[in-house]
Design brief:
With 231 residues, the chain is α+β, with helices and mostly antiparallel strands. The protein is built from six helices and 17 strands. The strands form four sheets. Strands 9-16-17-12-11-14-13 form a seven-stranded antiparallel beta sheet, with helices on one face. Strand 13 and strand 14 form a beta hairpin. The chain is globular and about 60 Å long. 20% of the residues are buried.
Length: 231
């Protein structure tokens, strides 16, 4: 009897460093055969995302980034060696895989200690607040789950703040202009338009060092949208 792909919780890295992504997973995240894939590392996990770009832009990006691979027509993709080393994944080893927020998430499967207190908690709570969003024409399109989690509606205005180096924060508009902890108001505000797009002001795109086609890591922290360039 064929294994139910929708219940699959692990994949096996073959002796060529590849994994075979189940067709149902690819369909769920809308990844096409022979697509160009970029991997992003996030804490103890890494994520794959299809990227679309002109051949010239893609060639330039591939020279700068060794985390770009192509998925073949059978669903096989090579996990970059640097990711296998970072996450201590060996050839012919099982690795964990989950579908979260229209993304395919990979992680090291660790043996559970017999002590209940040392068993790792599920990864969903943290990753359910995370999105990888591609910038197009200076804008990102906010997915429905993020809007709902943040209690954000179209035509609602957001204020932008800087936080640390290479991080910006968006908060619902208030009429006080202030500095809050390590947040510094930038004087920039934008409205979520009817198509759920949020424009990132040019000076803040420069602050993040992002261009069209780059991917942003967007997550919810309390009453804030925290935005930075994906690793």
């Amino acid at each position: 009897m064929k294994e139910d792909e929708s219940l699959k919780e692990y994949l096996i890295i073959d002796n060529m460093g590849r994994v075979k992504i189940p067709p149902l997973f690819l369909k769920h995240v809308n990844i096409q055969p022979s697509a160009t894939i970029q991997f992003f590392t996030y804490k103890n996990y890494f994520i794959m995302k299809q990227i679309e770009a002109s051949p010239v832009f893609l060639e330039k990006k591939m020279k700068l980034n060794n985390l770009i691979r192509t998925i073949d027509h059978l669903g096989y993709i090579v996990i970059p060696k640097i990711l296998r080393e970072i996450h201590d994944m060996n050839l012919c080893e099982k690795i964990g895989v989950k579908l979260i927020n229209k993304s395919i998430i990979f992680y090291k499967k660790r043996k559970q200690n017999k002590s209940p207190g040392l068993i790792k908690e599920p990864i969903e709570p943290e990753l359910n607040r995370l999105s990888l969003l591609e910038i197009k024409e200076g804008k990102i399109r906010l997915p429905n789950f993020l809007l709902e989690s943040f209690n954000l509606e179209v035509s609602m205005q957001l204020q932008f703040f800087t936080k640390d180096q290479g991080t910006i924060v968006a908060k619902k508009h208030r009429y006080e202009f202030f500095t809050e902890g390590n947040l510094f108001f930038t004087g920039q505000s934008r409205v979520v338009n009817k198509d759920k797009y949020l424009n990132i002001p040019k000076k803040l795109r420069n602050y993040l060092n992002v261009n069209n086609g780059d991917v942003l890591e967007v997550k919810i922290e309390g009453d804030k949208l925290v935005i930075k360039k994906a690793t």
